[in-house]
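Weekly sync, protein design subgroup
Attendees: M.S., D.O., the rotation student, P.L. (late)

Item 1: inverse folding check
M.S. brought a backbone from last month's batch and wanted to see whether the design step gives back something sensible before we order anything. D.O. pointed out we never logged the input encoding, so this time it goes straight into the notes. Structure tokens as presented (258 positions):
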């Protein structure tokens, strides 16, 4: 046996003391984290609530509300989408912008959908139904508040590795939410062709001929052939358009929507 009798007598008690101190500190830090996380999430939720309320107020001043008197045709279209998807209490606004975009937000009711005016220069009625239905889908499925909640959790300070993992998971969920909202858009417009054209026009802008449409479609089709695009998608909040179209095609086939 190796002789150890010459060990300095205080070595063992000090070692035990050190180990105890480490365990106590780890325990305290973990406990503190467990207590602090809900507080940080709550603070972020309250701040988000405040900023969405302010954004709503701002829209009421600067954007056009969709109403039977101000925008009768669009109002009828929005009501059709509402009947189809029953997303709950919704307010829809049109804001002046040359950008082609739409979004929804709100932690409480009514949820708000904002449509950018450029959409009306490019989309026909069925394509617009897809866009409105997509946003109603986000609202109906609770994505607006789930996004804020998950975003709040992602705001909690954490080691860089954990933050990257969390971001990847969050974005993955974001992308699946887009597929779900696209399904709602398809149900609202009832046509795979219109849903696909709406998605294509969102990236291409106006389309003037079928040849132009086929050319753009071929370019979109090649999107997922590039490995860099596929890798970049892991960090994106939205899937590639070709993936969205392919998901729509299989959902349409499943539900016999043509
Ligand atoms: Zn979306």
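Designed sequence read out in the meeting:
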């Amino acid at each position: 046996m190796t002789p150890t009798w010459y060990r300095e007598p205080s070595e063992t008690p000090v070692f035990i003391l050190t180990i105890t101190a480490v365990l106590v500190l780890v325990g305290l830090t973990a406990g503190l984290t467990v207590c602090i996380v809900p507080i940080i999430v709550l603070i972020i939720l309250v701040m988000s609530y405040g900023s969405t309320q302010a954004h709503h107020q701002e829209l009421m001043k600067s954007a056009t509300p969709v109403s039977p008197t101000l925008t009768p045709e669009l109002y009828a279209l929005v009501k059709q989408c509402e009947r189809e998807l029953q997303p709950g209490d919704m307010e829809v606004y049109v804001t002046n912008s040359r950008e082609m975009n739409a979004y929804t937000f709100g932690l409480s009711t009514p949820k708000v959908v904002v449509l950018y005016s450029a959409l009306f220069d490019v989309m026909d009625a069925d394509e617009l139904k897809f866009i409105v239905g997509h946003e109603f889908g986000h609202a109906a499925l609770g994505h607006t508040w789930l996004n804020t909640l998950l975003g709040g959790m992602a705001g909690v300070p954490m080691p860089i590795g954990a933050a990257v993992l969390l971001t990847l998971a969050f974005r993955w969920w974001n992308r699946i939410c887009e597929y779900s909202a696209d399904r709602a858009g398809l149900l609202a417009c009832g046509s795979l062709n219109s849903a696909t054209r709406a998605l294509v026009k969102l990236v291409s802008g106006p389309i003037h001929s079928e040849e132009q449409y086929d050319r753009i479609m071929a370019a979109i089709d090649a999107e997922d052939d590039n490995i860099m695009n596929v890798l970049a998608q892991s960090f994106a909040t939205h899937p590639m358009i070709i993936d969205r179209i392919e998901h729509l095609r299989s959902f349409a086939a499943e539900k016999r929507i043509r």
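Discussion: The first strand starts at residue 64 and ends at 65. The chain has ten helices and four strands.
Action: P.L. to compare against the previous round before Friday.
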